[in-house]
Design a protein that fits this description.
139 residues, alpha+beta, Alpha-Beta Plaits, 2 domains, globular
Length: 139
């Protein structure tokens, strides 16, 4: 069968989707995503003087040499982001974990504690406590 134009392709896609739904594939995929275990998002925020931006950015960038291998060894880490914003003179570490217990490993991670001390000496002010959010949904 030959389809011409976008209407033919659209009907083909609609028919294929209807077949998947009737066979249970599409609804099962949604159910599996909905049934995924809740994850935890950990957010550490800090601020600094605007004139320190370049120094803090460089130090944060160099920190990955020690932090990435240490974080990768931790149980349950799904994603980890270190980010900085010039406009607000702030930085965040956002990580996604399998559980609150997994996220709390960051509290005792030696390279992270050492880095926090270095940043504090440079005038970085960390918000406390660091919060661990249980996820409700994801897209």
């Amino acid at each position: 069968m030959v389809f011409s134009g976008s209407i033919g392709r659209r009907r083909l896609l609609q028919g294929s989707l209807a077949t998947l739904v009737s066979a249970g594939f599409a609804s099962n995929a949604r159910a599996q995503k909905a049934a995924a275990p809740a994850r935890v998002v950990r957010i550490s925020r800090a601020s600094f003087a605007p004139e320190k931006y370049d120094d803090i950015k460089d130090r944060l960038d160099r920190a990955q040499n020690a932090l990435v291998p240490a974080i990768q060894r931790l149980h349950g880490c799904i994603h980890y982001f270190a980010a900085i914003d010039r406009e607000s003179s702030s930085m965040v570490n956002v990580s996604v974990w399998q559980s609150v217990e997994d996220a709390k490993q960051m509290q005792t991670l030696a390279p992270m504690l050492e880095l926090a001390e270095e940043f504090t000496r440079e005038g970085v002010r960390f918000e406390r406590p660091i919060l661990n959010y249980e996820t409700l949904w994801e897209a």
